[in-house]
Amino acid sequence: MKKILIITILLTFINLLAMTQNNYIFKELPYSYDALEPYIDATTMETHYDKHHRAYYNNFVKGMEDGKYEKLPILEIFAKISQYPDVIRNMGGGYWNHEFFWESMTSEKTSVSNDLLKEIEKSFGTFDNFKNEFSKAANSVFGSGWAWLILNEKNELKITKTSNQDNPYMDVVSEKGTPLLAIDVWEHAYYLKHKNKRADYVQDFWNVVNWDAVSKRYENAIK
Ligand code: MN
Question: 30 lies in a domain?
Fold first, then answer.
């Protein structure tokens, strides 16, 4: 009995030590690789999560260690990302954006909350028009990047685009705010299934958006 207690205390201590060593967690994918089939195929999911996302995470952690930076919460780093080298901007963005992207999708049936729906209709006329505008933004990102639905500092909904792995929390982007929804339009997100047809991938994306998560983000952001 005593032995078990000592081992438990020791393990807790090791755990705490590990947490102070590295504040940044590589989260599990919230669903299986094939959960979003046929819209997003299992091979793309596996490569995207286990190769691309993991590499961003590993390189971000390494970049933070190499630069001996204080291990601040990542959103605090984004708020002053202009003071960091490109490796932190690119890898930190890649790490956080993908986690946000996975959590923006689901195989479950979800629905947009009344509050968010009302706000979308106020800002974009109709829900369908919002989807069209968002798709247009996603399809028109030149090269690699992301399209976002954000709530800006004036509590307005905006559709924005960022290049590479930038995101709306970063002090370097022109339109800042709290992200509510994101789509990754790097070719690695769709090329295996949709080839060069980004618009088809964007169309498929609407079938797997987690509106419960997006609505919850809106609720938290508006407070
Ligand atoms: Mn990606």
Answer: no
Domain assignment present for 24: no
What CATH number does residue 119 fall under? Answer: 3.55.40.20
Distance CA 44, CA 209 (A): 17
Average pLDDT, the chain: 93
Determine the Cα–Cα distance for residues 98 and 51; give it in Å rounded to an integer.
Answer: 12
223 vs 219: CA distance, rounded Å: 7
Look up the pTM and report it. 0.90
Tell me, yes or no, whether 16 lies in a domain: no
| pLDDT tens digits, one per residue of 66-95 | 999 999 999 999 999 999 999 999 999 999
Q: Could you give the number of structural domains in the chain?
A: 1
- Structural domain boundaries, residue 88: 42-223
Contacts of 7 (CB under 8 A, 6+ apart): none
**Ligand 1 centroid to residue 146 C-alpha, Å:** 9
Ligand 1 centroid–CA 100 distance in Å is: 11
Q: How far is the CA of 85 from the centre of ligand 1 (A)?
A: 21
Give which of 146, 198, 172 is closest to 83, Cα–Cα.
172
Distance 202 CA to ligand 1 centre (A): 14
Task: Calculate how far, in angstroms, residue 125's C-alpha sits from the geometric centre of ligand 1.
Answer: 31
pLDDT digits (tens, 9 = 90+) for 149-195: 999 999 999 999 999 999 999 999 999 999 999 999 999 999 999 99
What is the whole-number distance in angstroms between the Cα of residue 189 and the centre of ligand 1? 5
Is 202 domain-assigned?
yes
